[in-house]
Amino acid sequence: MTRNQVGCEAHSTLALNRKIRYSSFMTPALRLEEMSVPEKLQLMEALWQDLSRREDSVESPAWHGEVLAERERLIAAGKAQFIDWEQAKAEIRRECLED
Fold it and tell me: Computed over its alpha carbons, how large is the radius of gyration of the chain?
């Protein structure tokens, strides 16, 4: 991570902290109605990063395997193709912002 990315991440974290209240026992209570879509997406990414650090604690449901098998079948049949992860995230963000 570059120095600039660290600075941006820290700034973004501070902005998100303003949207989080803490109730008794330091449990965060998110004020989602006050968060913008980009802030919500950033929060989701932060949660996912935290969960993915402990992948043994998150079990995928059976239907995930079924979806992956179907996608592999479509790739093998030439009916689907892979795209770059950064491009996929950009498309997802764009779709979320359109809503």
Answer: 18
Nearest CA to 10 out of 36, 33, 42, 32 is that of 42
Question: pLDDT in tens for each of the 99 residues of the chain?
Answer: 444 443 444 444 445 555 555 455 555 677 888 889 999 999 999 988 888 888 777 788 999 999 999 999 999 999 999 999 999 999 999 999 886
Q: Cα–Cα distance between 29 and 20 in angstroms, integer?
A: 6
Q: pTM higher than 0.90 for the full model?
A: no
Give the separation between CA 4 and CA 12, rounded to whole angstroms.
12
